[in-house]
Known about the structure:
- Helices cover about 55% and strands about 0% of the residues.
- The chain has helices spanning about 1-20, 25-35, 35-45, 60-70, 70-80, 95-100, 105-110, 125-135, 135-145, 160-165, 170-180, 195-200, 205-210, 225-235, 235-245, 260-265, 270-280, 295-300, 305-310, 325-330, 335-349.
- It has 21 helices and no strands.
- By secondary structure, the chain is an all-alpha fold.
- The chain folds into 3 domains: about 25-115, Ankyrin repeat-containing domain (Serine Threonine Protein Phosphatase 5, Tetratricopeptide repeat), CATH 1.25.40; about 150-245, Ankyrin repeat-containing domain (Serine Threonine Protein Phosphatase 5, Tetratricopeptide repeat), CATH 1.25.40.20; about 260-349, Serine Threonine Protein Phosphatase 5, Tetratricopeptide repeat, CATH 1.25.40.20.
Amino acid sequence: MRAIRLSFLACLIALCIACSEDPTALLFKAAQEGASEQVKTLLNEGADPNAANYELNKVTPLMLAAEKGHLATVQLLLEQGAKPDSRDGDGRSALICAATESHLEVVKALLAASAGLGITDFAGETSLIRSAEKGHSEIVQVLLEAGSDVNKADYSQRTPLNAASAAGHASVVSMLLEAEADLDTKDTAGMNALLHASTEGHTEIVTALLAAGASIFSWVEDDGRTALIAAAQNGNIATLKVLLERGASIEAKDNTERTALLRAAAAGQTESVAALLDARAQIHHQDKMKRTALGWAALEGHLATLQILLEKGAKIDTLDVDGWTPLKWAQHNEHSEVASFLEEVAARE
């Protein structure tokens, strides 16, 4: 019985050794490391260039080499019949892998092998969307010249222009605009390129988009925020000033009737508040809750913002729909410093 066990164990060890020396199994590691000579040897020994490694999310040797930027290995695999459009467990092709990691020469080699430009991963992202989001301008240019669809969106309706605008890649945005990217496409968050750029404070991109004809009056679908409101709320002063110079409505309201001033005050963006007041924003405007900018600053506990509003003439005793004053909200939310300051102001009046 012991001899049988030893014999079985010996067979198992031999099988493991045989598996570890299988050319196809070894090909994955060699491709990932860019060991071209070893790859060539393994292919000559019968390794399958199109095998998918299920332990590595169904990647092929070509994907591994492309993702690491091993040009010679990629070229060798393509010459030996590797399919450029195979997809891994996330739907990525070798081209998507190379574009994401900014391997320009690999991208060119794959395109020369007729890699599919329209292939998407399982989020609907093309190689162009990936490279635009990453800011890989040279790859974006190559993909556009090869005929990539500049307006193809992913499953969240995000286009290459939206992705580049949100990420702040001005040179990529310029290329996409030259390729006639659509300015108005909104993603599932209800935002277009201008709204994304304004939210993130990418002033150069905002300027370029407006010059290309983007509507300064566009708004976020779910809450009605305009580009100006988004810039003010996030403290993007340079962007805010550009939008005002280009004619953005300072009194535009979101779905709760809050203006840029009220949103900025609620967020404690004192510089935004100051810039808006200098531009003659209505300091006494009330939203659907009948709350003013001062009321929001007090409710959220933003002392510096509250102080500048008072300096500019904000009323301290305006009641909201609950019948509460700014002081009452500061006390209720335990903003002791704000409450003390308002009590001192009230005492002086």
